[in-house]
């Protein structure tokens, strides 16, 4: 499989969708999921909407230590 730049709108793999479902079920915000999957927050929100996946509405900065689990 060829490497791809995640900012180019690469297709979602079955593994990506599984990870999206798992992270969303855990209450992870779209911004944090985006960092973990290498996609934009907008791409995460759009794909979640297409798949009928509910995301948390709280915006969290994945680089802010106050938003990390302690």
Walkthrough of the structure:
The protein has 70 residues and is mainly alpha-helical. It contains three helices and no strands. α2 packs across α3 (41-51). 14% of the residues are buried.
So how many helices? Answer: 3
Largest sheet data: none
Order of helices and strands: HHH
What global shape is seen?
globular
> What low-confidence regions span 5 or more consecutive residues with pLDDT below 50?
none
Q: How helix-rich are the residues, as a percent range?
A: 40-55%
Question: How would you summarize this macromolecular structure in one to three sentences?
Answer:
With 70 residues, the chain is mostly helical. Helix content is 44%, strand content 0%.
List keywords for this structure.
mainly alpha
Secondary-structure map:
Layout: H1 14-25, H2 30-37, H3 41-51
